[in-house]
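User: Hey, quick favor. My workstation is busy. Could you predict this chain's structure for me?
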Amino acid sequence: MSLIETIRASRIARRQELAAPIELTQAAANVKRTFPAVVNATPVSVGEAIQRLDIALRKWDWEGVTVGNISLAARAFLERDKIPHAVSDFLKRELEATTSSILLDAVGEAYFSGWTRHSERTRWLASILQARASHLSFRWKQLFVAVPELLDIDEAPLRLAEKMLVQADPFQWLLDAGLASPHAGQLSTEAYLAWLKLLPPVVTKQHVERIFGWIRPRGHQPVSTTLAARAVEKLLEPWRADMPAPEFRTFLTDRIIEAFGDPRYESKAESKAFWPLVALDRRTVLLRWLAGQSIDALLDIIMKATGNHMWPPRHHFWKGLYDRGLVTEAWIALSTPAMDIAGNIFSEGGGKVGQAAALQTATGNKKETCLLIMKVGRYTVVEGSHDYRVHLFLNTDRRAPALYQNEYNAEKIMLPQNDRMARIHDIHGGWQSWVEERVLR
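Assistant: No problem, here it is.
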């Protein structure tokens, strides 16, 4: 017996006796169900597909025109690409009459991407989806059964937003319902914006995470920075004229900055690209919270760095002005030893925003000085540790240091010894009255 005859006679190699690969068979069935009628064809460009259709229509010779060609051309037509008039007419009629789930998938995607209230094109696409419903692929059938309001050509975004409102995780809910890309398309964008408006004020951690679940869903791409900015505005909106509990304030501050960067770091690309998109009154809320954190952080750092007994009364005074809403922004500049201590404090505490500080670069007698630079009404105030005087600069004064710089030199900021806008910290607290007389005017 030859070798080939021996192999053919072997029971081990007989195909009919091999066990069916159940998991692979099931996976293939799932793919077929989700992507029916997939055509294996040599890939062509969109332009080539349109050209083949144009020639076929003129010559009425359909040899070599595949479903894939028609699908490519149909998607270009639905995306409003420039197409010969005869091809456009053909594709319009084809889409209205087709039983191909591939073409109807393209209709569904075009409906979502270009949804416009009272638009004739939106009305036409919706009519196709309704008329050809029995031929839709599984995921589109599933979606329109789960959310039939999506085909409301006048109020689909609002109706979808209302359904999202009762979902703990709207993004995952839409994925489960069959929408492959919940962020994609004008309909989804309008629904998201309507959902933000319908949501109650964000006052709990659960509410915060619900919004983050949409704008930064795990395992998926986040929304655009422009749309994310609308979410941050929603998160900060309740606090324009109020102050949340410290624990919630720290949580929300950390959550926002972790995702979008610190608004005080304008030099960093991430912050520079994002924060100008957020409304100023909402951005100011976060800066106000960060000011309070900076004032508290400086007390902790100075006490650990120097044991300076003069600082607690100063902290109490400035934090009092902050609590009265007078200190709207604050930034700290630390000496090199204090910067090292700050790093240890924040690594132990796990804070995500407390590490924001500048380096104080003075030498000589002022090299150990730590600075607190604040916006207080119409003044930029510079306060410092040790024997540093308190300085007040009108915001129009060119000598006033800018906030949120990377480095400061305590000596160069100082006003002359007898300048009327600087004051020593006398033990009787007269400096506090002097500050209040000016900032409260």
